[in-house]
Write a structure and sequence with these properties.
4 helices, four-stranded antiparallel sheet, 14 strands, Creatine Amidinohydrolase
Length: 255
């Protein structure tokens, strides 16, 4: 079911977004060469407890997950594109790391993701990061009253295709509110002018993710981590966005 949020509810969701952004800022700063993914998850867990927030991930067990997730942040390294399950791995110089985090604050959820290089970057990684970030910006810019979901999808897909990347449609953006995942689904490619009309009060996560050499993924043995089928590296960016009469409002902006 698609729900429209009141301005007061959107303000409360912004509080959740501010917290989510602060956790991503802190965990990104801690993601240095030698840091263990389990330490990063522990930092996020400590911040959740200190804020009196609730994790959206730890008990999450959808049909595509092998078991309850059991951690509070997704840490996807190199060829891991999405849903990277934190494990005993120490970050190495040149690793490409995506952090994806969602939490509930006072009953309202926000969801966001970032990708960056740990240590020494590769040119192809920087280009992938830049393209994926620009695709997020393009999708957000299209989230205006009078447009349709397809306009967001097309804006994201155009950036990817112009850069020569393929787009996977198995996972994309989604409605956010009292729960982490809801309607509408927001694909990362599509045709403009199609799909749900955008109205003030719609809130969803927009999340482009691209891989260097493929649009196909496989599930890791951990039952969660989704990797590129050819081992190529991946990037993922995400913000929780509200459609308003004054334009798109990013609720998960990071300071």
């Amino acid at each position: 079911m698609i729900e429209l949020r009141t301005p007061a509810e959107i303000d409360r969701m912004r509080a959740a977004g501010t917290f989510v952004g602060s956790v991503l800022t802190a965990t990104a700063a801690a993601s240095v060469v030698g840091a263990n993914l389990l330490e990063i998850d522990r930092l996020a867990h400590d911040m959740i407890r200190a804020a009196g927030a609730e994790s959206c991930y730890i008990d999450y067990h959808p049909s595509f997950g092998g078991s309850p997730f059991g951690k509070v942040i997704c840490t996807s390294v190199n060829d891991a594109a999405l849903h990277g399950l934190p494990h005993d791995y120490r970050l190495r110089d040149g690793d490409l790391l995506s952090l994806d985090f969602a939490a509930s604050v006072d009953g309202w959820v926000a969801d966001s993701a970032i990708t960056f290089v740990v240590g020494t970057p590769r040119d192809e990684d920087l280009r992938l990061i830049d393209t994926t970030s620009r695709a997020l910006d393009a999708g957000i810019a299209a989230a205006i009253v009078g447009n349709r979901i397809g306009d967001i999808s097309a804006a994201i897909g155009d950036v990817a295709h112009d850069a020569g990347y393929k787009v996977n449609l198995d996972f994309g953006g989604h409605g956010v509110g009292r729960t982490m995942h809801g309607d509408p689904h927001v694909p990362n490619d599509g045709r403009p002018g199609r799909g749900l009309p955008l109205r003030a009060g719609l809130v969803f996560a927009i999340e482009p993710w691209f891989m260097l050499g493929t649009d196909r993924i496989v599930t890791d043995q951990d039952g969660w981590t989704l990797r590129s089928v050819d081992g190529s590296r991946a990037a993922h960016f995400e913000h929780t966005v509200a459609v308003t009469d004054d334009g798109p409002l990013v609720l998960s902006a990071r300071k």
